[in-house]
Write a structure and sequence with these properties.
Elements (H helix, E strand, L loop, with lengths): L1 H15 L5 E3 L5 E6 L6 E5 L2 E7 L1 E6 L2 E6 L3 E4 L3 E9 L6 E7 L2 H14 L10 H14 L4 H20 L4 H7 L5 H14 L7 H8 L3 H12 L3 H20 L3 H7 L5 H12 L3 H9 L1
Antiparallel strand pairs: 1-2, 2-9, 3-8, 4-7, 4-9, 5-6, 5-8
Length: 289
């Protein structure tokens, strides 16, 4: 099944991947990835997701912990957290291939209730969960070439994938994403505002209100979930978007500084260099050339 899934992802990315090697799909939250060579460090703030590496390998730093994922490994992120990653093994003949699917809290909540009512065990007995998960992913990817069938069947396949994830090793952490009044879900409401309005000043009171917390409790729980303060989180979002605009659209550093919400180009330059290791102009020129 792993070979069939890998081949299906390779075929789809050959036709649909963009210049960055990412192939979006009609299924919300599903992305297929291809890379032909080891790359530079990529900074991102990951949403809760599952990522399955099918070929090649990737190194990922989450907080102060380093991980290496090779073919057959899966990475599950259960909170909005900053990541630094790079493809570490890929060639023209054997490109890095991966599948990523955002985790849906509404689906998790619904499944958790259904599993409780059915008396389903939270730990599987006599079931190869990994094999079942890959099988469901393969059936979903295969349907990408059948648009009419995909429109009818994709929701139940996404639901099935979530089901097998809930029965896996990370099931307990994933289940917390679905708790309506849980800290992760409440902080996620504030994160959604930060992602949408990162370029605007955002009073902490607005974010705390969205999370249903006092200002002090919000600060405490936001850092516990994301490892960053709200201001640091917003700053990283701005810098990540600024780099994307410079490298993909060729915009100048001064222009993107204002577009992502900085009032001072010099402050933008300092903070960009601190995060990426070199000032924006040099980073753009070096990467493009």
């Amino acid at each position: 099944m792993s070979d069939a899934l890998r081949d299906a992802v390779q075929r789809y990315t050959q036709e649909h991947a963009n210049a960055d090697g990412i192939a979006g799909t009609p299924v919300r939250g599903l992305f297929l990835v291809r890379g032909f060579s080891p790359g530079e460090l990529e900074h991102a703030i990951a949403s809760p997701l599952v990522c399955l590496v099918l070929q090649g390998s990737k190194r990922v730093t989450i907080g102060d912990r380093d991980f290496s994922f090779s073919a057959g490994d899966s990475m599950i992120v259960t909170a909005n957290v900053p990541t630094v990653s790079r493809i570490s093994e890929a060639t023209i003949t054997r490109p890095y291939l991966a599948l990523a699917l955002d985790l849906d809290p509404a689906v998790i909540t619904d499944l958790d209730v259904a599993m409780s009512m059915a008396g389903s065990p939270q730990e599987p007995v006599g079931i190869n969960v990994d094999e079942e998960l890959r099988n469901a992913m393969f059936r979903l990817v295969r349907l990408l070439g059948q648009p009419q069938s995909l429109s009818v069947l994709h929701k139940q396949l996404v639901r099935e994938i979530h089901y097998w994830l809930l029965l896996g090793d990370q099931g307990k952490a994933i289940r917390r994403l679905g708790l309506p009044d849980g800290q992760v879900r409440r902080i996620a409401r504030a994160v959604a505002i930060l992602r949408k309005d990162y370029a605007r000043p955002l009073p902490i009171e607005r974010l705390a209100k969205a999370a249903g917390m006092s200002r002090s409790a919000f600060h405490k729980h936001f850092r516990a979930v994301t490892s960053l303060s709200p201001l640091q989180f917003q700053k990283q979002l701005r810098l990540i978007e600024a780099r994307r605009l410079m490298l993909s659209q060729g915009k100048t550093s001064s222009r993107v500084a204002f577009e992502v919400g900085y009032a001072s180009v010099s402050q933008f330059t300092r903070e960009y260099a601190r995060m990426y290791g070199r000032p924006p102009v040099r980073d753009r020129n070096t990467t493009v050339t």
